[in-house]
Structure formats: C-alpha cells, structure tokens
Amino acid sequence: MKIARVTGSTISTIKSPRVKETKLLICREADASGTKELGSSYVATDLVDAGVGDLVLTCHGSAARQTPITKETPVDAVIMAVLDNLVVDGEIVFKK
Amino acid sequence: MKIARVTGSTISTIKSPRVKETKLLICREADASGTKELGSSYVATDLVDAGVGDLVLTCHGSAARQTPITKETPVDAVIMAVLDNLVVDGEIVFKK
Amino acid sequence: MKIARVTGSTISTIKSPRVKETKLLICREADASGTKELGSSYVATDLVDAGVGDLVLTCHGSAARQTPITKETPVDAVIMAVLDNLVVDGEIVFKK
Amino acid sequence: MKIARVTGSTISTIKSPRVKETKLLICREADASGTKELGSSYVATDLVDAGVGDLVLTCHGSAARQTPITKETPVDAVIMAVLDNLVVDGEIVFKK
Amino acid sequence: MKIARVTGSTISTIKSPRVKETKLLICREADASGTKELGSSYVATDLVDAGVGDLVLTCHGSAARQTPITKETPVDAVIMAVLDNLVVDGEIVFKK
Predict the structure, then answer these.
(1) Fold adopted by E2-95
(2) How many interchain CB pairs under 8 A, A with D?
(3) A96, B67, D6, E21: which has the fewest C-beta neighbours closer than 10 Å?
(4) Contact call for residues A43 and A24 (beta carbons, < 8 A)
C-alpha cells in the first residue's frame, strides 16, 4: 500500500454505471512522515470517506477490486484507510 | 488510475479478433492540472469515445479487462473516463 | 500497452513445455514516433510473427495470458500487434 | 520479492473488517546487503511477526493475497519472510 | 520477462510451508547483452536449477504462479529460464 495525501477531486464522464456512483479522488504518494509529496498524481476510488488533505493508504492492482463497491469494475486503485498515526523508528512522525 | 492526455492513434496488425475491433489510442500521463505531460507514451483501448486532445483517466492491469469490450482479451490499459473537471486544493485546475 | 522495438532474440533452457514452443524476443520500449528507444530491454512472447526491427505493441501482466498460446503459462509479456502507422497530433509520425 | 527493512508502524481507520485485524507495517526497499535503503516507503501486512529493524521479504500484487489471512482483502503487499542470511557472490553480506 | 543475473542466495524464516521448500535467489536486472546490471536487487523463486552467475529470465506478477511449484503461494517472481544465447541486431551478444 502507498502512503498518500488526498489533494483533489475529479468530475468525469464514465460509462461503467457502478464506477459512476463512486467518488474518484486525486492522490499523491507521500513519504513515511506524510510531509513530503512524491511522484506524479493518480486517481483512486474512495472507500473510507476521505477528504482533501487527509493522509491515506491506497492499494493498487487487483487488490483494488477486493471490496463490494469495486468488485468487477475497471478500477485499479482505492483509498482503503485514513491514517491516524505513523510511527517511524520509535517516534510518532504523523498524528492526525 | 492515471490522468492522461490522448495524443494520437495507431493502426496495427493484430491477431486477436476482439482487440481488432477496438480503437487503440496513444496516451501520455499528465500532472494533476492536465497541463504538463509526464513519462513515456502508452497505448490504451478506448471505452468512452475519447478524442485526441482529451484529458482522460486510464486504468491498468487486470482492471482493464473488467468491461464487456475487453473481457478476456490481451489488453492491459483502457481509457475509462473523459475528465470534465479537476479540482486541486479547492481550486478548479482543469475545465473541459 | 507499450510501443516497443523488437531488437533481438533469445535461446534458453526452459522447463515449462508450453513456453518452450514459443518465440521469446527482446524488446525495448520506444517513444510515440518509434524513433527513440527508452528504458531497459525486456523479453516478450511473440504472438504475431514479429521480426527484429519491427515496431510492435507489447502487453504486460495477466493480460499476457489472455491468448490460447500463453494461457496458464509463466509469461508476463507478449507482442500482440505489429504497428503499421502511428499518428500523433494529426501527423503521421511512423509508417511501416 | 523485494528485500526491505521494516521501519515503522501505522494506526489507521479501515472499513474492511479483515484488514483491521492485521498489523500494517512501514517498509523500505533495501539493497542486497540490507545496508542501504532505496526508494520510497510503503506499507505491507505482516504475516511473520516482523518487528521494526528486521530485514524482510515483501511480495506484491495478487501474490499478497495467496495466504489465509489476506485472501480476498484489499491488500497489495505482505511481509512473507524474515531474512536470516543474505549471500552475494559467495560472501555473507547480511546475518541477522 | 526481465533479463537478470543471479547474484546470490537467501536464508529466511517463512511461514508458508510450500514457499519454504523452494530456493529463493537474489537477482539483478541486466541489459540485453547481460554485461551491465541495472536497478535494485530482487528475490525470485528458482524453477530451473539456476546458479549464482547465471543469466536468466524472471517473470513477475501473477505469471509467477502459473507453475505447479508456485501455484497459490505468496510468490511474485520466478526464474523461468536459463539463458544460453542472446542475439541483438544480428550479433551474438551473450553465449553461456
């Protein structure tokens, strides 16, 4: 799973009826303390009522379809957790 | 899913009869505002009547085969949405 | 799918009897005009009688096994099309 | 599989009841001697009672769900081994 | 498939009984002539009795489980061929 920051939202024209009903959010990978953003933006289906600014976990590939909402839909990334705390080398580096 | 710009089209000799009937478009990943193109070009099966210049979402891997058109075909990327709006940090950064 | 140039061939000792009967070619990703090679070389099972020098499309991951030849074999990349034309921004950038 | 160092732990709000019961650890890819960390951090489900500081193997993609704990859950990375020894070019480069 | 050099071996504590019985080797991607190593090391299950120093093909993702030895195991990379010859642009660039 990637540690990511939710940075925005999308409005789009989608044919798949089940994907249409979901919220597609813009995410960007973050470092282990959630302070630095890395790499390019990507879009993930929200499963946990995440909001812009939240630090989340996204999972990718076929894992993204192991949920009732995304099963058998053309979706390759989902937000599956909102992060509350990150502890690295014994120190709390992120607290919601 | 990747935010991508459709940049072109392909004509090719394909054996798989079902892939032959689909439109294979050239895409290039874009940043979250759709203004800068990133990385190398790739080819995706069009599911949403996208045109050259459109900003789209592409999904990858086995997700690309979760549609009636691409089911059980050798296809690893599809265009599954045409983007109408992108909102980053509360600002509209892209409007079709 | 990746746009790729076929650059060579391989001879190898393989245990899987069905993979043994296939042609494994060396490919290198190319840019959208097919003139510049990018990244490192990889090996793909040929499904379309491609030859060295051809510009092709390769598909990757589980997509590579959605064909009668590669079904249930340890193969993660196939050549699924020989490119005849590439058109970018309204211009023919590659013609076979 | 990736050679990785476990660097931390996460607390998060997850909807999937089965993922909730697992331990999600922060990992960072390491070189073949386990001394240098590479790339960005990622989060993996612990299957082997790994602890912070351990050098482990993580597996990714659908492979991560080939275990009773992770089967049919939205998980794309697991820690599947704790490394005891790494031998490169005939030399022991890592010993737990 | 990736062209890779086998560089070492691993000893580890694994829970999955079927993975325990396999040989996990350290590999590093190589260029098309097998002379230059590229990128970071990774670990793959050996299916072809490869040894340290051998130039091999590794396959990745769900492809790695399309063999009797790795079926339904948490394994995402296997060595599926030992390379005997590589021919690039009509020249033999590698001979075992």
Answers:
(1) OB fold (Dihydrolipoamide Acetyltransferase, E2P) (2.40.50)
(2) 97
(3) E21
(4) yes
Token representation of residue B91: 């600002």
Interatomic CA distance for residues B23 and B20, integer angstroms? 8
H-assigned helices in chain C = 17-20
Contact at CB, E52 and D90, closer than 8 angstroms? yes
Interface membership of A79 toward D (CB under 8 Å): no
Residue among D18, D15, D16, D44 nearest D29 (CA): D44
Which chains share 3+ C-beta pairs under 8 angstroms with B?
Answer: A, C
Q: Are strands C77-88 and C37-46 parallel, antiparallel or unpaired?
A: parallel
Contacts of B91 (CB under 8 A, 6+ apart): none
Nearest neighbour of E14 by CB, restricted to D32, D81, D85: D81
Task: List subunits contacting chain D, requiring 3 or more Cβ pairs under 8 Å.
Answer: A, E
In a structure prediction context, what are the per-residue pLDDT tens digits for chain B, which is 96 residues long? 999 999 999 999 998 888 888 999 999 999 999 999 998 999 999 999 999 999 999 999 999 999 999 999 999 999 999 999 999 999 999 999
Task: List the single best residue of A7, A25, A28, A43 to mutate versus B (max B Cβ within 10 A).
Answer: A43
Task: Read off the pTM.
Answer: 0.96
Q: CB within 8 A of B51, min separation 6: which ones?
A: B6
Q: Which residues of chain A lie closer than 8 angstroms to B84, CB-CB?
A: 11-13
Q: How many CA atoms lie within 13 A of B85 on its CB side?
A: 8
Question: Where are the extended beta strands (E) located within chain E?
Answer: 2-14, 24-29, 42-46, 55-60, 77-88, 91-95
Question: What tokens were used for A8?
Answer: 């925005």
- What's C67's DSSP letter? S
Instruction: Residue A26: list chain B partners with CB under 8 A.
Output: 3, 32, 86, 88
| ipTM of the shown complex | 0.95
Closest chain E residue by Cα to residue C40: E31
**How many other β-carbons are positioned within 10 Å of the β-carbon of residue D35?**
11
Name B68's bridge partners: none
Which residues have CB under 8 Å from A61's CB, separation 6+?
Answer: A76, B61, B62, B63, D61, D62, D76
CB contact under 8 A, A62 and B63: yes
